[in-house]
């Protein structure tokens, strides 16, 4: 007789194998019968994205349109982030911490350039508590003076001290690429004067403008839809529907340029180019990022990607390509970190690798690998877990659609070597943004790397004219004559170059009857005409080689 | 206990008690003599205490400066065995508690911390 447990175990195994077979079959078929990673809904005026795989834990995040891009004054996003989960009207920060500890939850607040994220990870059953907490933090934080001085400022100073060359270089690259908005630093450096802008009142005013129903999105991973419907409505009622002050919302514009910052310690170079925005149809940029890559997926080998091979040629440096996609702009960056000499070498090798794509194209094998990598990057980024949580939220607050998986995959597969070549060519010939942080004696200039800085055509003549003027301004100094003499010479030259009739009129204007006399020992010297004396002095100075 | 125990809240609830005690309290405050030295009642709170030091650090800069000025003036007067001219005495309406609210807030924080440190978790299953 077959005992029951064995039977049930066998059947379980069989079931599991069946499931596994089904999974294996689906593998790529998932792309053929795709659905968006989340369904956007609106509950009581709040945009909600949720995905539930019936796991035991839940991640609930509020993504607010309060990233550094939207801060009206420098440092406010950082202040708002540090004020999260502090004293509210209902309970103190200490009580919030202890209660969350008792429930086994985790609270986290962080920001990107576009979004401020307040996240809570907890056990599935505790959804009501954390929904209430997040809504309370949004609408009822007190922004007290003593917390600002005793806690917020200390944390900001500590985080500022931790900023490394890589972060500063990435900020600098954004700054030269976008100037304002997206160009605002993700975290202000210790030397940024934020003290006059950042205080509890300015943070409270920013919170009032940013935390409104239209500016936030709730993203849930692992919470039941019924639970969300039930709890978001009563708790998020306290969040204001609209604010009297609105956020700055200027469209991003790409400028490009170069910035170099001296800093002891580690070295970093960021080479940045215009990239693909969120939801833009630029599959070749995604594939190019996959091809450039940088981080090897295989142990003990640099892998196929161009940047990891470039970094392998310069031991001590790491290179990585990323496309930072924002709602209305993108930045394709190559970040190189390490010791100064290695960074220099790796930067040269990286540009060489990019040039090799333009000149020689890519092999079919590498293209296939790059497309596969791009697909993985895209799909893992669009899942509503981990970093995808922020992605989904950012997409929602900017009114974007969830990723259309099938179409995007098809677009990625349609990228061929020629398109890739063309994309790389546009990058190299376009206006790059280059930031170098570290030992500037060693780190190369953009020009040395072979990256072009194209000056916009309509500004070209004006700029070159300015450059000449700038040189002319100090020519008299270089010639060693006084400013008065210089003016006299210049005026004479201008007058002499006029046409006959105009010249006569102008010279008549120049005629003057000013006389002067030098007094010495109490006696008046000879009275002389100033114009004659000037002319004489000019002749003398010409004879003595310009020193007058 | 930096803030002295007080029957104030009990008296406020009973108007007759209030009407009885208010003139008495006013007389006492004047008789205590600190107003004649230009001090406020909260200037007399002992400073050598963690909580009070914390409360003082939370005072607005102007308030803190004025407090130190009053105390130094009073010290000087004490050395000289003098009191201020009458028009410089602290007026009863100026004698407001500026430190006590912060102290009470701090004590509530400490009390809450203590309660949370010693709580017992009751499981409902």
Automatic annotation (TrEMBL), chain A:
<comment type="similarity">
    <text>Belongs to the eukaryotic ATPase epsilon family.</text>
</comment>
<protein>
    <recommendedName>
        <fullName>Cytochrome b-c1 complex subunit 2, mitochondrial</fullName>
    </recommendedName>
</protein>
<dbReference type="InterPro" id="IPR006721">
    <property type="entry name" value="ATP_synth_F1_esu_mt"/>
</dbReference>
<keyword id="KW-0813">Transport</keyword>
<dbReference type="InterPro" id="IPR050361">
    <property type="entry name" value="MPP/UQCRC_Complex"/>
</dbReference>
<dbReference type="GO" id="GO:0045259">
    <property type="term" value="C:proton-transporting ATP synthase complex"/>
</dbReference>
<keyword id="KW-0999">Mitochondrion inner membrane</keyword>
<dbReference type="InterPro" id="IPR011765">
    <property type="entry name" value="Pept_M16_N"/>
</dbReference>
<feature type="domain" description="Peptidase M16 C-terminal">
    <location>
        <begin position="198"/>
        <end position="372"/>
    </location>
</feature>
<dbReference type="InterPro" id="IPR036742">
    <property type="entry name" value="ATP_synth_F1_esu_sf_mt"/>
</dbReference>
<keyword id="KW-0496">Mitochondrion</keyword>
<comment type="similarity">
    <text>Belongs to the peptidase M16 family. UQCRC2/QCR2 subfamily.</text>
</comment>
<dbReference type="InterPro" id="IPR007863">
    <property type="entry name" value="Peptidase_M16_C"/>
</dbReference>
<dbReference type="GO" id="GO:0046933">
    <property type="term" value="F:proton-transporting ATP synthase activity, rotational mechanism"/>
</dbReference>
<dbReference type="GO" id="GO:0046872">
    <property type="term" value="F:metal ion binding"/>
</dbReference>
<feature type="domain" description="Peptidase M16 N-terminal">
    <location>
        <begin position="47"/>
        <end position="187"/>
    </location>
</feature>
<dbReference type="InterPro" id="IPR011249">
    <property type="entry name" value="Metalloenz_LuxS/M16"/>
</dbReference>
<keyword id="KW-0472">Membrane</keyword>
<keyword id="KW-0809">Transit peptide</keyword>
<dbReference type="GO" id="GO:0005743">
    <property type="term" value="C:mitochondrial inner membrane"/>
</dbReference>
<dbReference type="Pfam" id="PF05193">
    <property type="entry name" value="Peptidase_M16_C"/>
</dbReference>
<dbReference type="Pfam" id="PF04627">
    <property type="entry name" value="ATP-synt_Eps"/>
</dbReference>
TrEMBL record, chain B:
<dbReference type="GO" id="GO:0005743">
    <property type="term" value="C:mitochondrial inner membrane"/>
</dbReference>
<dbReference type="InterPro" id="IPR036544">
    <property type="entry name" value="QCR7_sf"/>
</dbReference>
<keyword id="KW-0999">Mitochondrion inner membrane</keyword>
<keyword id="KW-0472">Membrane</keyword>
<protein>
    <recommendedName>
        <fullName>Cytochrome b-c1 complex subunit 7</fullName>
    </recommendedName>
</protein>
<dbReference type="Pfam" id="PF02271">
    <property type="entry name" value="UCR_14kD"/>
</dbReference>
<keyword id="KW-0249">Electron transport</keyword>
<keyword id="KW-0813">Transport</keyword>
<comment type="similarity">
    <text>Belongs to the UQCRB/QCR7 family.</text>
</comment>
<keyword id="KW-0679">Respiratory chain</keyword>
<comment type="function">
    <text>Component of the ubiquinol-cytochrome c oxidoreductase, a multisubunit transmembrane complex that is part of the mitochondrial electron transport chain which drives oxidative phosphorylation.</text>
</comment>
<dbReference type="GO" id="GO:0045275">
    <property type="term" value="C:respiratory chain complex III"/>
</dbReference>
<dbReference type="GO" id="GO:0006122">
    <property type="term" value="P:mitochondrial electron transport, ubiquinol to cytochrome c"/>
</dbReference>
<keyword id="KW-0496">Mitochondrion</keyword>
<dbReference type="InterPro" id="IPR003197">
    <property type="entry name" value="QCR7"/>
</dbReference>
């Amino acid at each position: 007789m077959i005992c029951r447990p064995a039977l049930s175990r066998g059947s379980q195994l069989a079931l599991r194998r069946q499931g596994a077979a089904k999974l294996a079959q689906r593998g790529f078929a998932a792309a053929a019968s795709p659905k968006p990673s989340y369904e956007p809904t609106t509950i009581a005026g709040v945009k909600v994205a949720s995905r539930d795989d019936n796991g035991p834990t839940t991640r609930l995040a509020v993504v607010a349109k309060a990233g550094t891009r939207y801060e009206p004054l420098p440092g406010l996003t950082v202040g708002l982030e540090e004020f999260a989960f502090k004293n509210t009207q209902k309970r103190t920060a200490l009580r919030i911490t202890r209660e969350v500890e008792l429930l086994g939850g985790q609270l986290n607040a962080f920001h990107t350039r576009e979004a401020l994220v307040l996240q809570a990870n907890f056990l599935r059953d505790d959804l009501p508590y954390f929904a209430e907490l997040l809504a309370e933090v949004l609408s009822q934080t007190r922004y007290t003076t003593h917390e600002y001085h005793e806690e917020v400022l200390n944390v900001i100073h500590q985080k500022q001290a931790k900023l490394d060359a890589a972060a500063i270089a990435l900020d600098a690259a954004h700054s030269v690429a976008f100037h304002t908005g997206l160009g605002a630093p993700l975290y202000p450096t210790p030397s940024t004067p934020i003290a006059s802008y950042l205080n509890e009142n300015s943070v409270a005013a920013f919170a009032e403008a940013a935390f409104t129903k239209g500016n936030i999105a709730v993203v849930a991973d692992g919470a039941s839809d019924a639970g969300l419907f039930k709890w978001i409505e009563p708790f998020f009622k306290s969040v204001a529907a609209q604010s009297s002050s609105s956020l700055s919302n200027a469209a991003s514009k790409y400028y490009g340029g170069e910035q170099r910052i001296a800093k002891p310690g580690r070295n970093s170079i960021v080479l940045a180019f215009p990239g693909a925005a969120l939801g833009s149809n630029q599959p070749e940029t995604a594939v190019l990022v996959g091809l450039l890559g940088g981080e090897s997926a295989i142990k003990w080998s640099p892998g196929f990607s161009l940047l990891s091979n470039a970094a392998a040629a310069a031991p001590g440096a790491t290179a990585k390509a990323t496309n930072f996609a924002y709602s209305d702009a993108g930045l394709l960056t190559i970040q190189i970190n390490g010791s100064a000499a290695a960074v220099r070498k790796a930067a040269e090798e990286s540009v060489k690798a990019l040039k090799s794509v333009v000149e020689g194209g890519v092999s079919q094998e590498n293209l296939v690998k790059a497309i596969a990598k791009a697909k993985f990057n895209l799909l893992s980024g669009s899942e509503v877990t981990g970093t995808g949580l922020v992605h989904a939220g950012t997409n929602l607050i900017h009114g974007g659609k969830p990723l259309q998986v099938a179409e995007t995959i098809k677009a990625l597969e349609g990228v061929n070597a020629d398109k890739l070549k063309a994309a790389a060519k546009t990058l190299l010939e376009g206006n790059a943004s280059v930031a170098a942080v570290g030992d500037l004696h060693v780190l190369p200039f953009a020009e040395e790397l072979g990256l072009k800085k194209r000056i916009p055509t309509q500004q070209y003549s004006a700029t070159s004219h300015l450059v000449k003027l700038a040189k002319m301004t100090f020519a008299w100094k270089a010639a060693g004559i006084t400013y008065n003499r210089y003016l006299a010479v210049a005026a004479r030259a201008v007058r002499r170059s006029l046409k006959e009739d105009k010249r006569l009129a102008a010279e008549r204007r120049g005629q003057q009857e000013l006389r002067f006399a030098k007094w010495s020992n109490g006696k008046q010297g000879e009275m002389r005409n100033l114009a004659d004396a000037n002319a004489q002095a000019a002749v003398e100075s010409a004879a003595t080689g310009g020193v007058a | 206990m930096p803030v002295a125990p007080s029957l104030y809240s009990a008296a406020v609830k009973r108007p007759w008690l209030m009407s009885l005690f208010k003139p008495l309290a006013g007389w006492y405050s004047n008789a205590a003599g600190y107003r004649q030295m230009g001090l406020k009642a909260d200037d007399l709170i002992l400073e050598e205490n963690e909580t009070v030091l914390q409360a003082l650090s939370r005072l607005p800069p102007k308030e803190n400066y004025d407090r130190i000025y009053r105390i130094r003036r009073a010290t000087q007067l004490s050395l000289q065995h003098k009191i201020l001219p009458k028009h410089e005495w602290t007026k009863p309406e100026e004698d407001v508690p500026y430190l006590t609210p912060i102290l009470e807030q701090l004590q509530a924080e400490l009390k809450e911390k203590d309660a949370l440190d010693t709580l017992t978790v009751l499981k409902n299953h």
